[in-house]
Every structure is written in structure tokens, then in C-alpha cells.
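Chapter summary example.
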Amino acid sequence: EGFRFMAIRNIFLRVAGLMAIFLLLKGPAQYRIYYAIIALTQMATLVINFFYIRRSLKLGAVSSKQPVPFDMLFYFFIASTFISIYDFTDTVMLGWLGNDAQVGYYTTGMKLIRLALSVVIVINTILFPRFSWIEAEQKSRGSFLGVLLQRYELQ
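The structure predicted for these 155 residues follows.
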């Protein structure tokens, strides 16, 4: 349940990366610095997550008696590959049929859509287990929806 720490850390690192972009970049020719800032921000997030998670996990020897399902991994790999190809086909086709400005508008719109979708997925991933736990706890005291409405004063 270290979500608060991870969220605050992620927001802090993204804001620091954004500030570095605005302070260090002077023009389009400095795209390497831009990519370095993005990569360093991501790496910092991963390293901090690794050490944070390492404190709470107990790692031990794993039994090798369980066979690795390579056939299922292969199917997952093939599906992921085709999804990636399908995902970029529209942009490639637009690049062939349109100009750079149209591709830029389209990819910016798609990024906004993906951002909104990822926010909804994260909220669902975090809230659904909590909602089910609250519903199980509230069975004797009332429905979850009633508690939710009272909590946010929606009644």
C-alpha cells in the first residue's frame, strides 16, 4: 500500500524533469538533451522503485519443479507484437498520406486519449480492490453505495 509514496515521488520526478527541460533546452537542435532528461527521469523512478520494493519483499529460492510455459509466453509475445504493429499503423499511414503537421496533430490527440485512458485504468486498479474490501466490511452496516454517497455528500 505504498501508493502515496510512489505517487508523490513520481509527481516530484516528473515535475523536476519538466523543469529541467524548460531550463536546459534552448532550441530544437538540443533533442539529445531532451531525450537524456526523459531517460534519466524514468531511470530515477525505476531505481527508487526497486529499492523501495526490495525493502518489503522477501526473496528466496524458487523451486524449479514448475515447468516454464514457453508456448503461452510465445503466444503472449506474438499477440503483443501484433498489437504494437496495429497501434502504429494508423500513424504510419497518415504519414504517407498527409504532411508532418497532420501527423503531429493526430499523435498529440492520441497521446491525450492514451493519457486519459491510463488515468482511468490506474484509478480502477487502485479503487476496485479498496471498494470490494469496503463492501465486504460494510455488509453489516449498510451498502457500499450508501457509504460512498455519505462520504462525498452526494445525497
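To summarize the output: The mean pLDDT is 80.
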